[in-house]
Amino acid sequence: MEHYDVAIIGGGQAGIPLAYELPAAGKRTVLIERKHLGGSCTNFGCTPTKSAIASARVAHLARRAADFGLRIPIVEVDFAAVIKRARDIVHAHRSAMERDLAETKNTRLIIAQARLDGRDGDRFRVVAGGETLLADQVILDTGTRSFIPSIDGIDRIDVIHAGNWLETTSLPSRLIVIGGGVIALEMAQFYRRLGSTVDVIETHARIAATEDEDVSATLRELLEREGIAFHLQAKIERIEKQSDEIVVRMASGPSLAGTHLFVAAGRKPNTDDLGLESVGVIAERGIVNTDERLSTNVRGIWAAGDIRGGPMFTHTAWDDYRVLYSQLAGDRSRTTERVVPYAIFTDPEVGRVGMTEREARESGREIKVARYEIAKNSKAVEIGEPDGFIKLIAEAASGRLLGATVVCHEAAELVHVYIDLMNARAPFTVIRDAVYIHPTLAEAVQSAATRLG
Ligand SMILES: Cc1cc2nc3c(=O)[nH]c(=O)nc-3n(C[C@H](O)[C@H](O)[C@H](O)COP(=O)(O)OP(=O)(O)OC[C@H]3O[C@@H](n4cnc5c(N)ncnc54)[C@H](O)[C@@H]3O)c2cc1C
After folding, report:
1. How far, in Å, from the CA of 29 to the mean position of ligand 1?
2. Residue 91 carries which DSSP code?
């Protein structure tokens, strides 16, 4: 049995950088990936969705040409070409990773499904592709897959979901989306802008339900303006296939009919077949329990990325690599105590960091809240992107930001100013009193801070 210092199961956002870096620190490393390097983000998540959303935005802008004094009489969508562009970008990213890993000395890549298989003395046994390996330490980075709810009839439908949407190369003419969270909203707008009719079914009373109500309401208004229909507080009774139609029967209210069904009802951790029980790793509903150093309850077994509970983003999974590197090959000081930002890549985007207003109020702190309408920013008007707002929440006494929400064009970029401020633990006055370039959207970042006092 081959022995390794570290076995990494899952070539996701933490696993790959660890496979590059640990060998350089003298650790004999094996990375085991069952399908493609890059995991969800590269292969069907961030990379292709943002590529496809970019195509959809061009179509949207072309249709808005008259707003800018231009004439583009016909906007034709070549959906297969849009998907091909997204796939080509995926392949380019993945090939670069494969090349870099092949050039990394002292690391081995195995393409196979892996699982833990108990211990051999102090070492862990890992089974992969008919081979049993021994490892002193194991890092689990196996990510998540689409959760398909058990609705009556859904098993008889070829559903589209986050994991397979790149395989559908013809445009769904009438799309029904189940779910009103981030993936659902991004994909609903993508298909709508390329020409599908889109109905979104959500069980909650509002979309993007973890955000403040003003964010949900603004997103809903903007997406409805583009023709997306929302069915909120909806309960699906069953789904039927009727020749070429998919019919979604609701517990109350009229049924919905479409040609395709996109299910974006949450994510399920890929830990059910990982042999966790063979070494005694504790998981709750598939989420592996970890401490702030990403150690599981079993010394020598670590978990990273979406399966470790907490925020499920590429950038947090990637930061987990730094936390783990610090534990396995560094001074052990880095932990998951971190400011976590994220974005919803609808258009306009939502850039978020820290507490929502609701969370800040519920925390009982004394706070100040400021809101600034993007329509007041001159650059936003000049480039024809006046929708949205910025909301800041600061601790009243110290002036430190507790949270920021930016809803506007390029919000995922703009929110970084607030991320830096929070990481620096600096008061909002740093932004308020600085000189910003005119005309920029960044001036709106400053204008919002000005309203805090
Ligand atoms: C449609 C979509 C859009 C997204 N957009 C964004 C975005 O814009 N920004 C953002 O920050 N996040 C986004 N995410 C989330 C992001 O993709 C994940 O948070 C991130 O990929 C998590 O990384 P990970 O390392 O935990 O797992 P993953 O990237 O999923 O990697 C896990 C890997 O483990 C492999 N694996 C699983 N089980 C085994 C096994 N037993 N043996 C061997 N290999 C195994 C899998 O094949 C996979 O390659 C998106 C997700 C989706 C689905």
Report:
1. 21
2. H
Note the pLDDT of residue 271. Answer: 98
- Please give the sequence-ordered ranges of beta strands (E in DSSP) within 251-388, or none if there are none: 256-258, 260-263, 267-269, 283-284, 287-288, 301-303, 341-344, 349-354, 367-373
Nearest alpha carbon, ligand 1 atom 26: 305
Name the residue ranges covered by the structural domains of the chain: 3-145+268-329, 154-265, 348-450
* 348-450 classified as CATH 3.40.47.10: no
Give percent of the chain with pLDDT exceeding 90.
99
**8 Å CB contact between 308 and 321:** no
Instruction: Return d(Cα 120, Cα 118) in angstroms, integer.
Output: 7
User: Ligand 1: distance of its center to the CA of 322 in Å?
Assistant: 17
CATH number of 3-145+268-329: 3.50.50.60
Q: What angle (nearest 5°) sits at the alpha carbon of residue 285, between those of residues 284 and 288?
A: 45
Token pair for residue 196? 């599908």
- Same fold across 3-145+268-329 and 348-450: no
Q: Average pLDDT for residues 46-61, to the nearest whole number?
A: 98
Q: Binning pLDDT at 50, 70 and 90, where does residue 303 land?
A: very high
Q: How far is the C-alpha of 136 from the C-alpha of 5, rounded, in Å?
A: 5
C-alpha distances (whole Å) from 408 to each of 171, 182, 243, 390 are 28, 16, 42, 8
E strand map for 98-150: 107-111, 114-120, 123-128, 131-140, 144-146
Statement: 154-265 belongs to CATH 3.50.50.60: yes
Mutate to test the pocket of ligand 1, among 8, 13, 41, 315 (most ligand atoms within 8 A of CB): 41
